[in-house]
Request: fold
Amino acid sequence: MTEQTIKAIIERGPNPMGARTQFDVPAYDNQTVLDVVSWVQQNVDPTLSYRFACRVGMCGSCAMMVNGVPRWTCRTHISKVLVGNEVTIAPLRNLPVVKDLVVDMDAFFDKWIAAEGLHHGALTREDPIAKVDPTSSARVASDAGVECINCAVCYAACDTVSTNQEYLGPAALQRAWTLLNDTKDNGREKILDAVTGAGGCQNCHSMGSCTAYCPNELDPMSAIAGLKRESAKSFFRKGR
Amino acid sequence: MGGDFRMKASKSIKARAHPLWLAYALHRLSGLGLALFLPLHFWVLALAVTNPGQLDRFLQLTDAGIVKLAEFGLVFLLAVHFFGGLRLIALEWLPWTAPQKSLAAGAAAVSFMVATLFLLKAI
Amino acid sequence: MLSMRLYMLQRITAVAMAPLVLGHLLVMIYAVQGGLSTAEILGRTKGSFFWFLFYGTFVLAASIHGAIGLRTIVSEWAGLKGVALNCFGWLTYVGLFVLGARAVWAVTFA
Amino acid sequence: MRVSEIERHDTDILILGTGGAGLFAALHAKQTAPEATKITIAVKGLIGKCGCTRMVQGGYNVALGGGDTVERHFMDTINGGKWLPNQDMAWRLCEQAVVRIRELENEVGCFFDRNADGSLHQKAFAGQTADRTVHKGDLTGIEIINRLMEKVLASGVEKLQEHRAVGLIPTKDGAALAGVLMIDMRTGAFRFVRAKTVLMATGGGPTMYKYHTPSGDKTMDGLAMALRAGLKLRDMEMVQFHPTGLLAGDHTRMTGTVLEEGLRGAGGQLVNHAGQRFMFDYDANGERATRDIVSRGIYAEMRKNNNPDQEGVFISMSHLGPENVRQKFKGMVKRCADSGFDLAAGKVEVVPTAHYFMGGVVVDVDTRTAMEGLYVAGEDAGGAHGSNRLGGNGVANSTVYGGIAGDTMGVDVKKHVYFRDPDNDVLAAELERAVYPLGQKPDLIMPLRRKLQDCMWDNVGVMRTEAGMKQGLGGIAEVSTELMTIGVDGSNLAFNLTWHDWLNLRSLCDISEVITKAGLARQNSRGAHYREDFPEPGAMEDSEFTVAQMQNGNVAVMREPVEFTIVKPGETVLPADAPETLVATQ
Ligand SMILES: Cc1cc2nc3c(=O)[nH]c(=O)nc-3n(C[C@H](O)[C@H](O)[C@H](O)COP(=O)(O)OP(=O)(O)OC[C@H]3O[C@@H](n4cnc5c(N)ncnc54)[C@H](O)[C@@H]3O)c2cc1C
Ligand code: HEM
Ligand code: SF4
Ligand code: F3S
Ligand code: FES
Reply:
């Protein structure tokens, strides 16, 4: 333990209630951004709202803007983000704010489903489990994006999301890509239709912020490129 | 109002400082620049029929430093946009997951070379 | 905001322009040596079916490509949507094309 | 706040919680219930993003042949639970897990790891006699919950997200459940949801201990509600500790989170502050002994050291080669690094950490409770694991019984044409209870939660004695009383976390008392429950389980004999020539 303090500036949404408040938080050796926010709520401002669940980077509930960068706060060590001894924390970008640091993630998940981000199976619980070669290229491609924790960090990082309401966003499109490569999935046509619709993959400008900031080191940009490739092929084949 | 200013601050994003985003910005701005320049370019060329003398006077202007610089800018824009665009199409349509950053950097470098070559020739 | 069709059209026109841009750049690098003059330009292009096709295609592709590009920018940065957006796209396309076609005509067969 | 101000809402099937149990129940109810049935899923957090199923690392136990059988899985479960499990529940768990895993792969679309030949990869957790645990790397829970969540989100069920259940409201005669009182956390409004059938799948969660693994939303709300509703709770003394929780100080939420089991399996060493390996002093298997033994070993070592600045012990991996460790435990190394520790080359301080709650509501094998209209599945239900849960049986249990609950409710809902009317007195009392702190003078709540956590850890933790537990009861009562004097600023109830901290602590206090009383009632040591004053397990044939219930405003603990409906102690359902274990010894 040290005697030092951290200057935590918390920007609370939404607008009418919005305020930029500075808190002096005691610094500790092992301390995450979430711990800083929690300390404020537990010790000085009991009205501060934020969201978390697992506290170890598995649930994707705790993402916020930290110094203007979207991050999973439970797995971000404070020393990584301190500028001097200061840090600015704000609600996640690109989603409506419920209160303070809590955003409404419905749009993010609605788009996930709109991108056909769910399994389209042909087999049932009566069938044996299919054999899948773990080294096949399709499986490897599919596997690459499957460990997404839907934290919406990529969604917050992407400027296309902020300027194009319909855009499905990197996480949803990446999910569609994992399904397109999943040999057990039978929804190819549906998925391609979904990802070439109004907010489809063609809207992505390959800014790469999604890939740059994904805390799990996933690569939605390349997944979306994959979708564009498949969509283009199917466009040439079917003329749509 | 202070309040408004504050909320603006919260929306500011600093998550753009990486090569791919800069490549995107460069591509968009160069595209925008080209699209805005194009009507001018067409209009000037059309002078060939309507008013050849004026076209000549205009073309003589290209010797002036300022105009040279502007031209360099244009060729630069075209080169940047051209290589950036090819990079994008390659990234999107060719099945590589190549190191995108070096591709972006490469595209920028080649654009510079072409534009500089043009400038040198022009001088 | 960008439909798959516009997206494809933008990419296809881009690919089509690739050799044209290269050609154009080379010509320009060659041409600017010693300054440009009307006579010089016209001497090269006047009555040439090749240059007519070259620049004609270029103009067609560029006006489609540029219009789609501007349409995207306007929708993302200015929030234009729906009919207004489509009108903007078409107007830009027609405008660019007409201006471009006039220029091509001027330097080739006019 | 008056009863008349409570918003009203009706649905046919109401599901509380979106862990493995809640989500599976929603899917199955959708499949079994008549077309027009309205299904609502209410949850304290966001759908699929809270609860512990998502945090499952190791995997999912299921006997899929290759020598392994349902019988063998069943025997491991009974032996692991030290003959306390409800055998019919344990059997159904093992049997249905086979169906459920196929459903997860084939219908839900999970992506479990494969062997080189394309078949499912299975490994063995400690305490298992076969390679049985299906997994997706060490992030199995994310895969299961994400896939389930997608299906549920797309299924058209009604969503009540960030809705916290605060009270089960029975009918006037108390025989049936009328509905559930909830707080819409986003606005702070109260909502009474009437439902013909209700599944409680709020997932227990022993977070009243100083060190604990479950997610922050889990605070025993469900069991506290069930207790108040007069239901019987069994095996409440049974708290499983995971031996290696991260120790990073009490100012960080990371403390208590799990360092995976596989570290010890791969050869990780536990050393004390003096730098000595100690596990072989406690068990011949050293670090590879089962969870309960290692937890006790560490706890004993910590007690011996008795230095407040040197609380835990260390797990050390570096002798296996830092590069190797980095490669093999990529996720774990990264997680430790994010929190400032070097798992690959250095050593990381660990403590036993409260992980899973074996106790729960008494249910039948179809998840029905004694109260008509109320069903319980997952970690909230007691019986399947007895005194100890095998690693990998937790998520199997929640998904298996969640599905069963959905099927059962889907059928039962047809029997109920009308909604039941609530007992308005209970409704008023539950409302009163929930708004109580808003009328008190605001003060800090966390110091009090710490106090409870220290008390439970010190007195009702890894090793227990009568004197300790009695002291514990006193401590719990103190916290409980003090809590009633601490208020919450109620000027804005929207997403008022501090109010919810208060309610969380209320649930934790209530169930802590039950745990302690059940612990006092069990005068022997079985599985997770270890009494230093009664270290022997007692005769298996005379096994009893504890049953706690509210009687006249007090928690009473009774004991009931275990019925050996399938197999008796000393016997087995395996063929006589079956090998002891199919796991190749390391
Ligand atoms: C870190 C960790 C690792 C684990 N690893 C394994 C493993 O490898 N293998 C294994 O088999 N098991 C493992 N387990 C255990 C396993 O996760 C649980 O046994 C199982 O997931 C419980 O499922 P559930 O559906 O009952 O509860 P949960 O998944 O915990 O879900 C409970 C739900 O109820 C909601 N809820 C709680 N209170 C309320 C309320 N008042 N109102 C409304 N909703 C409420 C919660 O928000 C949550 O959505 C692990 C547990 C942890 C914590
Ligand atoms: C061979 C040459 C060219 C190539 C390969 C090319 C390629 C591309 C590509 C791939 C895009 C899509 C970018 C995205 O969606 O993010 C694009 C956008 C654009 N192009 Fe081009 N282009 C070329 C020439 C031109 C020309 C001559 C103009 C001028 C009219 C132009 C104007 C634009 C504009 C305005 C955009 C929109 C920018 C954006 O959306 O960010 N392009 N170009
Ligand atoms: S892709 Fe990465 S950043 Fe995006 S939601 Fe998934 S885990 Fe989060
Ligand atoms: S940041 Fe956005 S624009 Fe595309 S590459 Fe990623 S989705
Ligand atoms: S709290 Fe779950 S990812 Fe941060």
Chain C touches chain A through 13 residues (CB under 8 Å).
